[in-house]
Each structure stands twice: as C-alpha cells, then as structure tokens.
Amino acid sequence: MINFWGAYIREVWTHRLKGVSRVALFGAGEHSSWLLDVVRPSGGATVVALIDDDAEKIREVKGLPVVLPESLAKLEVEAVVISSDANELALFNRAREVFPGVRIVRLYDNLPPGPYDKQGQLPNGIDTLVGPHEAVNLDTVVSLALESETKREIIRTLESLEPDPYVARMLDGYRRALNRFGDRWKYIDLWSVLFAYATLTSPKRYLEIGTRRGHSLALVCAGCIAAGHSELDVVSCDLWIANYAGTENPGPDFVADQMKRVGYDRPIRFVSGSTRDTLSELFSSPGETFDLITVDGDHSRDGARADLDQVATRITLGGMVAFDDINHPQHQYLGEVWNAVMPFHEGFETYVNPRNHTGIAIAIRYQ
Ligand SMILES: C[S@@+](CC[C@H](N)C(=O)[O-])C[C@H]1O[C@@H](n2cnc3c(N)ncnc32)[C@H](O)[C@@H]1O
Questions:
Q1: Mean pLDDT by 10-residue block, N- to C-terminus, for the chain (367 residues)?
Q2: Ligand 1 proximal residues by C-beta, below 6 Å
Q3: Predicted pLDDT of residue 109
C-alpha cells in the first residue's frame, strides 16, 4: 500500500523549504521521529536539532540534539519547522511568540485538524469533507461580485434609498465605469460581495458591525429578496457617531425606514453603542452564530482587530465575513489587521483585494 502521508509531507517539505539548508524542528515528540525518517532521504534542508521545552529530559532524537527554545540563536538555522500533527496550530502560535522574526514553516495548515492516521493512504476524515453543494466557495462569490450586472443591481437598490452625497458619488462612478467598459467591467467592493453572497446563499442570520445609513444592509436585504428569500434576521451594531464621514448618521429608526424602501420590513435587532462594550454581551451565548458578518465599524487598529477576532469564531459553515477598507488612505493598517487575525482562524478560504476602491477582504468558512 502506498503511504500517502510520507509522500505528501516530503512534497510539502521540499516545496516550502526550497533554498533553505539548515532547519530546526519545534517539538521533539513521536511526530519528529517519524518526520526525520520521512524527510532525511529527500536530500533537501538538513535538520540540525530539535527544540522542545522538555529538552532536559529528552536530550536526543534519532541522533540529533534536543535543545531549549532559548538556544535557537546558537543553532544558526534559517527556519523552524512545526513538528506536530496533534497540536499543530497551538505549537505554531507558540513558535511565533518565542521566535519573533524567525521564519516558521507549517506542514499541515491546509488540512482538517490532526492527529492523522499515519499508516493510512488518506487523512482521517477526508470522506467527511464538505461537498460542493453544502457551502458556497470563494470563487463563486467573487466572480458574481465582480460582474457588471451586480453593479446594476447595486445602483437600483441604492437609488431607492434616501439620497446622500456619498452614495451619489459612488453611484456616479459605477455608472461612468459601466458606460465606459460595459460588461467587461470587473470591480469588487464591500457592497458587491454582500449583494453577491446574499443572492447566492440566502443567509438566515446577518450581523453587521457598522451600518451607518444602511447602504450595505440594504444590499444584503435586496440580495435575499432577489433570491426569493424572506427569512433573513438582522443584528445591526453601531455607535451612530454623529455626522460620520460628513453625513448625518440618524440611527435605528432611519435605518429601519431605509430597509422598508428596499422591501425588507422584518424587525431588526439594533445593538447601539461601541462594539468594545456590546460584543461581549451579544456573544455571551456560544451558540450565537451568523451566516454572514460585516466588520465595518470601529476603524482603529485595536478596535477593528478585536471585532474581527471575535466574529471569526461565530461564522457558520459556508458563512462569510467581509472586512472593509483594508487599503483606505486613512486606515492603511487595516490590511495588516486582516493578516494578523485571519490566519489564526482555521478553516477559512480568504480573498483580499486592496486595489478596488478602499479595499476589501473576505473569508468563507469551508470546514
Ligand atoms: C463606514 S460606516 C459603515 C458603513 C456601512 N457598512 C455601509 O457600507 O453602508 C462606519 C459605522 O461604524 C460606526 N462605528 C464607529 N466606531 C464604532 C464602534 N466602536 N462600535 C460600533 N460602531 C462604530 C459609525 O457610527 C458608522 O456608522
């Protein structure tokens, strides 16, 4: 029988450590013994030592020294490889903490969480992976969001709301681009990903952090209505900062009226106040999950990071989180916030586009 695991890990090792000559393994357990047998014959990067908190007890694995994390500098390695399948993510997080600035290499980050049956041909659970009909994939959402027809739907929807200068300017830009490029125009922003996702999947529960005058919310509602879905429940969190971005920001009654204009008249749960104070109560029940979440409220580095980090654990399978303004001229650090948060939440496929408008990032949960 072919051992899938040996071949797979050798491939990952060769690919990720191309051009690297000296590495250390982090973790000196059974996995490292197995890994050394698998990768030593591959002739690529040489393992010079293992690093483990229990170095004083273990001392040696397959002829290599085991040292404490504080001895890393003496090893003169170019990378540290996470050597565990059972606690891979925890060990990775710890490595980032104790080896700042060092290149850390993972071997299992694209797979369902381990441990795996190393004798088998395939990883445990591969037969239980989500089928293509069960969760929309990222490419489907992105391709619909990019469509010119989606922009026409956005124009139709936002034209029905109470006018304001910001939307007028945005829609003017949409119209000009459609005139100029026609159906070849491919463009993506928060509004288009929300409309596309709502149309494709008819989410049942939507959490919006940052609603302001209801533009993004109107697009989610309109997308559901276009798909013939009328069961959407909405939770809207906003601090209703007066005169936000130079336009009145009147609050819940105004937003509820705006939604009626697009044909959505179900009660909306408004959570007014800063998410720094309100999210912990909203999430006090572990069962509080959402199919779609927008994070577009607090634009400070710490505030946006806290919002994103909390909501990422509340997305249902196939659900999407949208994070706006990753390249906004006044908030350019928001791209870094995305990169600092999302890789630590497993099971998402992510899309980042900093080039269109103020930049958008989305993540869809596939496991
Ligand atoms: C950029 S606007 C939202 C725009 C909306 N998503 C759209 O596309 O139509 C940001 C909103 O977040 C709100 N906000 C700012 N800081 C907040 C905080 N700490 N907690 C909750 N809401 C906040 C502001 O009052 C404002 O209404």
A1: 74 91 95 92 90 94 95 95 92 92 90 76 60 89 97 98 95 98 97 98 97 98 95 97 93 98 97 97 92 98 97 95 96 95 90 94 93
A2: 190, 210-212, 215-216, 237-241, 244, 249, 274-276, 294, 296-298, 303
A3: 84
pLDDT at site 17: 93
CA distance 219 to 239: 21
Assess whether 148 and 90 both reside in one domain: no
Please state whether the predicted TM-score (pTM) of the whole model is above 0.85. no
Both structure tokens of 58: 């273990």
Angle between helices 215-226 and 148-159 (to 10 degrees): 110
Residue with CA nearest ligand 1 atom 1: 296
Q: Which long-range contacts (CB under 8 A, 24 or more apart) does 108-117 make?
A: 109/346, 112/367, 113/88, 113/89, 113/346, 114/84, 114/85, 114/86, 114/88, 115/85, 115/86, 116/5, 116/85
Residue 133 lies in a domain: no
Q: Name the domain boundary from 76, 97, 128.
A: 128
* Structure tokens, 3: 């051992």
Asked if 230 and 296 sit in the same domain, the reply is yes
Nearest CA, atom 14, ligand 1: 297
Q: How far is CA 51 from CA 18, 40, 74, 77, 289, in A?
A: 22, 17, 12, 12, 39
CATH of the domain at 254: 3.40.50.150
The preferred substitution site among 162, 193, 207, 244 for testing ligand 1, maximizing ligand atoms within 8 Å of CB, is 244
CA of 177 to the centre of ligand 1 (A): 27
Distance 284 CA to ligand 1 centre (A): 22
Which pair of structure tokens corresponds to residue 71?
Answer: 């001895």
- Is 197 contained in some domain? yes
Q: Pick left, alpha or beta for residue 125 (phi over 0 → left; psi -120 to 50 → alpha; otherwise beta).
A: left
